[in-house]
Amino acid sequence: MIFDLGLLAKIFAINLSYVTLNTIRFMLTMKGYRILAPLLSMVEIVIYVLGLSMVMNSLDNPLNLAAYALGYGAGIGIGIKIEDWLALGYTMITVMTQDVSSTMPNQLRDLGYGVSSYRANGRDGERLVLEILLTRKAERHLQNKVLEIDPKAFMVSYDPKYIHGGFWSKRVHLGK
């Protein structure tokens, strides 16, 4: 068995690059970036073929396969970190508070958030429910602000698939 550190490093780096791009491309596809995702996939497949051919040409050395597998795992982790940093798209956060007379809706509106609110009945009584659409980049800030106003608030966030009209309609469709 030949120990070629340079080849191992190349295999690792190529697969790390491929899987990082693959993870980002998948997330772009899920967010509806219909031009950027296919363009990225063309670069991704070239890198994939290069890395796979390097491993296939030297299957007699299990270290090459190990470098390929390590690059794959590291690429997924880095791809997820990059996507978190980019924070593409929008999220919808539902906030429920026990204080039905809370000034939270207006406090959040004053910060620039679009807030729809209504009263609902929970197991333990009436609640104030807020529906807030925002960019993913602003999600952590909003969560911290809500908890600052009401530390007992209940929050749920999810990615909206389709958005039309309302407060964000002009901003949502830019760049896709």
Structure commentary:
With 176 residues, the protein is of the alpha+beta class. Helix content is 54%, strand content 19%. It contains six helices and four strands. It has a four-stranded antiparallel beta sheet with strand order 2-3-1-4, with helices on one face. 20% of the residues are buried. Pfam families: DUF2179, DUF5698.
Note the run of SSEs as H and E: HHHEHEEHEH
**Total number of helices:** 6
Report how far apart the termini are. Answer: 50 Å
What is the helical fraction, as a range of percent? 40-55%
State the shape: elongated
pLDDT < 50 stretches: 171-176
Radius of gyration: 23 Å
The computed structural class is: alpha+beta
Mean pLDDT: 88
Beta-strand content bin = 15-25%
Largest sheet: 4 strands, antiparallel
Please give the order of strands in the largest beta sheet.
2-3-1-4
Count of β-strands: 4
Provide a brief overview of the structure.
This protein has 176 residues and is of the alpha+beta class. It has helices at residues 5-31, 36-56, 62-86, 104-110, 139-149, 169-172; strands at 90-97, 114-122, 125-135, 154-158. A 4-stranded antiparallel sheet has the order 2-3-1-4, covered by helices on one side.
